[in-house]
Amino acid sequence: MPNDMITLKAHAKELSEALAGGKINKISAAGGDIFYIFLRAKGKNRILYASVRSEVAGIFLTESTAGEFGQPNNFCMCLRKHLVGATVEGFDIINEDRIVAMRLISKNELNDAARYSLITEIMGGASNIVLTDGDDTVIDAAKRILNENSRPVYPHFKYEPPKRGKILLSSAEAPDVLKNAGSPEEAFAALNGLSKESAAELYRLRDEIGAEKALSRMDDLYAYEGYSPAVSEGSKRAFYAYPYSGVTRYTAVPSLSAAMDLTYSLTVRERETSRRSAAVRKRLSALEKKLKKHIEQSRNVLSDPGKKERYLELGEILKCNFSRIQRGMSIIECYDFYNTRNVKIELNPTFSAKKNVEHYFKQYAKAKGAESFAREDLKRSEELSERVKELKTYIRNCSSEAEFKEIDEELSSLSGKPALPVRGKAKNTPKTPPYREEIEGFTVFVGKNSKQNERVTFELAGASDVWLHAKNFHGAHGLIVSGGKEVPDSVIERAAAIVAGFSECADAPKAEVDYTLRKFVKRLKGSRVTYTEYKTVVVKPLSVNKF
Predict the structure, then answer these.
(1) How far is it, in rounded angstroms, from Cα 349 to Cα 245?
(2) Over the chain, what is the mean pLDDT?
């Protein structure tokens, strides 16, 4: 994403305009790598987010804090000591790099005016936040660095920004370098402060308005009349100072802070979803293997029903030859009147004749019981296997911790094991809402798991509402609230496509979706249903934003 110098330079000017003259009231930490700075600026309470966590490193205004604050670490306490009560002078970029400096003025222990800089280095895994005094001496840092192989970032050392080896955009050489670049990749390799996306945009602008004007525009995006922060949509989510030419689908937002907040919050949520999904899938896989083993064993027992009958036959044969059985015999040959031939029957030499006969009758009773158990276990295991397939579909639909908890609870009820622990304090989780969308004036609900399906079908639906389900596949229950009106085909098709997208057939090029009135849907076991009087529509499964 273009989290580069030119974007951050515009961002710094935007922050200066929003926060200059503001006063810091409070500083809190969420872990040792995320900090929240609470300010009052221009008559508004604002929250400034600062992070060194690699996937969400940066500094920007946010609307909310993520979860509860933890115990403040030493760096947080240092920030509180020096910056609470400080006034914001502005923001700027250091060394034409991804380094945003927040300039502040406060009072020291002697009540004299003192200047400070809160420097955020936004460099992936090497990101850092450094507090310096007016002489650029390090007071403390989120990540202290003191080794002979790198610059020192340690109390009492002079602050030194990371070294760069490229040509600055503001240098006299930059226009000629850009003119001579044969590709966006060459421009990216030669010029400092560019992401690959920005290099491609600069290269395009060079051909459109010339190298000098292109560099001037990109060097001060905040002054560009086309400045319009946006977040791209799709698999590669990124934020921009304005939608670059290659960005076709995007969401416009009021500021770069809003763009960063949205991008990073979705990134964190997707990562957490991926983590929870992997953990639940692991449990599902273990249960699936266990059920597969049960099914194989049960089928093996049921595959040879004559085995138990043979125990009965051998017992009857031994009973008829009772007087011939002597203690110490290991084999006896008898006439098999069931098959009209002689048969050798194994005996336990330590058993009496009576115990040897009883042994075969006991084996018959045991095999008969095992067959009965296997038949029941096979039915149960096959039913649970179908439930596991359902849960696999529902995991794909999860977008929140509460929804994963619902899946966990259902999985625990199937496996008989406790649910996975949830990060943070345990709370009573409220019912999660199903997916909702307004289509041509009709409200559509789609369940993302079995509990939501239950709510959609048996709590939200009225008798005359339209109910939908993917034909012959596990997955979502859909509902179109008709309000007593006739539902147009276009609404049914759109709702059916969403239902298919939340079902087992989500990746299929085409899917059949049945729909009927809710009054023709009858409850079976759990969230399972049966339905009649239905029609079928063929649609392309539609993937919608779950977050």
Answers:
(1) 91
(2) 88
